[in-house]
Design a protein that fits this description.
Elements lengths: L1 H24 L8 H11 L6 E5 L5 H8 L3 E6 L2 H13 L6 E5 L12 E4 L3 H14 L5 E5 L12 E2 L2 E5 L2
Parallel strand pairs: 1-2, 1-4, 2-3, 4-5
Antiparallel strand pairs: 5-7, 6-7
Helix pairs in contact: 2-3
Length: 169
């Protein structure tokens, strides 16, 4: 009985750590509405073979949509449960050759190879993320933000239903 209680205590602690770590290190998971997923893909104007990334990819729905649109799509997620869920969804739809989920923070990733960057950030990370994107993404890249605007990056003329499209000039 004591061994079972110890096991349950350790399991509960691990669950709390894995669920709280993303909150402390990043953002809480909120799924993107299906209408916004479609808007993100439409505004991104994906070209076949282009590299796209979703920062904080959650359940993988945007990565899957970007791959369906023709991109080589990558997602970065720090919540291991969401990574597992996303990878299972990608496998279920047969996109393993065009969509990948990486279990790591996007803060340490060089974003230069991506011509399309998607983010559903929260206000307190947007200033630092804006600086990272302006430093790393190439001229002509498109950055699509769901809901939250970047604090000083002048957006392009495309804005629809809470989705903002920015161009790196």
């Amino acid at each position: 009985m004591i061994i079972l209680l110890q096991f349950l205590a350790i399991a509960a602690l691990l669950v709390v750590i894995y669920l709280l770590a993303p909150i402390v290190r990043g953002a809480v998971y909120f799924p993107t509405r299906p209408a916004n997923v479609a808007t993100i893909v439409r505004l991104a104007e994906i070209k076949s073979g282009e590299k796209a990334v979703d920062l904080g990819s959650g359940d993988g729905r945007i990565v899957i949509a970007l791959a369906h649109a023709g991109a080589e799509a990558h997602g970065y997620e720090i919540n291991p449960f969401l990574v597992w869920r996303s990878r299972a969804a990608i496998k279920r739809v047969g996109l393993e050759n065009r969509a990948r989920i990486h279990w790591r923070s996007f803060w340490g990733v060089n974003l230069a190879p991506y011509s399309v960057v998607v983010v559903y950030g929260i206000p307190y990370i947007m200033r630092a993320l804006e600086k990272k994107l302006l430093r790393e993404v190439q001229t002509g890249s498109r950055v699509v933000s769901n809901i939250y605007e970047f604090p000083s990056w002048v957006e392009s003329v495309k804005h629809k239903g809470g989705v903002y499209l920015y161009f790196k000039k």
